[in-house]
Amino acid sequence: MPSATPGATPPPDPTLDAVTPPRETPRWDRLDPATAERLEDAALGLLERTGVEVPVPEALALLRDAGAAIDGSRARIPERLVRWALGTAPKEVTLHDREGRPALQLAGRNHFFGTGSDCLNILDHRTGERRRSTYADLREGLAIADALPNIDFVMSMFLPADVDQTLADRYQAAELLCRTRKPIVLVTYDLAGMLDGIEMAEIVAGGRPALEARPQLGVYINVTRGLLFNEDSVRKLLACAERGVPALWIPVTSGGTTGPITLAGTIAINTAGILAGVVLAQLAREGAPVVVPAFGGDSLDLRTMVDPYAGPEPKGVAASLAHRWGLPMFSLGAGSDAKTVDEQSAAEAGMTMLADALAGGHLIHDCGYLESGLTGSLVQLAICDELAGWINALVRPVDVSDEALALDLVEAHGVDGSYLETDHTFTHYRERWYPTLIDRRGYEAWRAGGATTLAQRAAGRVEELLASHAPAPLDPDVEGAVRAIVERVQAAAGL
User: Are residue 422 and residue 438 in the same domain, yes or no?
Assistant: First the structure.
């Protein structure tokens, strides 16, 4: 186990308030109880009758010892085992900031917005060119995500094409830990990359026990299909459980290709895979934190064979099931299928962000995504930040205190009073939501200001933030220890 590095951040005061207050959204359930029960029963039936492929002997042994029927690498999991796992899995996961302060409470109807990861391309806001993303883009993207006030957690955004691709996840992990204080979601290519990333996070936290007690990161684990697990994903899940690191267990089943074209059929398969992952995590370590997807049931657009990121049909279905179990979740919202920053990109981002927030989707990722996840845009990210602010204001509880009702003030001013000059207005006017990018000026003022579009204003904001915002640095000794892991892996690879 790595020891705390000299100069590492000291243990925080556990009484510190949360950095980001909970956002309890109005309740919207896509599924009524009977429909949710029907989908759950279908998934439980698949696990008992069809089973799931688990190509890892240690995992199969855990399942066998717990009463699952094992046939080769196929595991048939009884309902009682699923019910046990749902009862022992934590109902809340709290992600912390770099200083160890609680930041994001994944529980109830809360929602938080963040970026996505691993875009192959970037839509360059300076030139308008779509090109391969680079290491410099990765660093700039993290700086913008760190600066934007409504981006609550950060993923790598870009896959740098100008580094060795077998080690790109190590570069991403190091930059995430060094260039933002916000909670992060880590994506790695294999088990070794995940362990290196967790080791970096342990150094920043001050050691393995500190990271387990106050995790800054969750690890995204992409699973081949609902009923077909790949070896690497299972080993990642077991390793996360052993270390107490939150595992985001995300099976992917696509309607019409790897699952039935019908929404219900695809959801049933994916839900079976989700539940099997929860079982495995709890068998590996009872109480291991596992985060389940609040999305799934997607289908390729069979006219284009493109996987749409903003389709309406699956929205809210997986979230309703996760709320039924009381589990923390990871949502997919804000992504767009548009190829550039335009009306489609803003509309799709806004609609999907709102749907996932109203569903109480906890971690809502993919702000800044275009082209069905192939291209990222810092301009689109800035627009998503603005939309997130609008949504957060929408779901804020209504203050009906005496001060807010201001009935004495109304009585004093009568039926036709003016409130513009009152102290009450001066005291409270900032409580209203004021946009940064959305233009509310009159037409003539807008023309006089350059008649800019939303995209142009967002590009200007990106440049302003790049010029003015520097992510808070790590202690030099800590950053040196983090980057030494990258150097160690480079040396082992002969680079």
Answer: no
Q: Amino acid letter at 118?
A: D
Q: Establish how many alpha carbons lie within 13 A of residue 356's alpha carbon, considering only the half-sphere containing its beta carbon.
A: 34
Q: Are residues 134 and 282 in the same domain?
A: yes
State whether 352 and 411 are in the same domain: no
Residue 219 bridge partners (DSSP): 186, 247
363: closest CA among 115, 89, 167, 84? 115
Same domain, residue pair 453 and 409? no
pLDDT of residue 9: 40
Q: What is the pLDDT of residues 134-158, one digit of tens each?
A: 999 999 999 999 999 999 999 999 9
Q: Which of 237, 242, 245, 190 is nearest to 217 (CA)?
A: 245
H or E segment to which residue 209 belongs: helix 208-213
The C-alpha atoms of residue 213 and residue 283 are separated, in whole angstroms, by 20
What was the pLDDT predicted at 2?
34
The 10 Å Cβ neighbour count of residue 276 is 32
274 CB-side CA count, 13 A: 32
- Residue 427 shares a structural domain with residue 392: no
Sign of CA dihedral 409, 415, 420, 425: positive
Range of the domain at 98: 1-397+433-495
| The token pair that represents 257 in the structure block | 């290709």
Measured between alpha carbons, how far is 313 from 308 in angstroms, rounded to an integer?
11
Residue where a domain stops, chosen among 381, 413, 431: 431
- In angstroms, the CA 111 to CA 334 distance is 13
Which structure tokens are listed for 133?
Answer: 């993303």
- Buried residues in 6-30 as b, exposed as e (16+ CB within 10 A): eebbebbeeeeeebbeebebeebbb
Tell me, yes or no, whether 209 and 331 share the same domain: yes
Q: How many domains does the chain have?
A: 2
Residues of the chain with pLDDT under 50: 1-18
How confident is the model at residue 22, as a pLDDT? 63
Amino acid 302: pLDDT:
86
Q: What is the pLDDT of residue 7?
A: 36
pLDDT the model gives residue 300: 85
Measured CA to CA, the distance from residue 439 to residue 7 in angstroms comes to 46
Residue type (1 letter), 179: R
- Whether the CB-CB separation of 248 and 218 falls below 8 Å is answered with yes
Phi-psi region of 371 (alpha: psi -120 to 50; beta: other; left: phi over 0): left
Q: What is the pLDDT of residues 283-308, one digit of tens each?
A: 999 999 999 999 998 888 889 988 88
| CA atoms of 372 and 361, how far apart (whole Å) | 20
| Pairing between β-strand 111-115 and β-strand 362-367 as defined by DSSP bridges | parallel
CA distance 107 to 90: 10
Residues 215 and 323 in one domain: yes
Question: Do 95 and 141 fall within a single domain?
Answer: yes
- The answer to whether the CB of 22 falls within 8 A of the CB of 102 is no
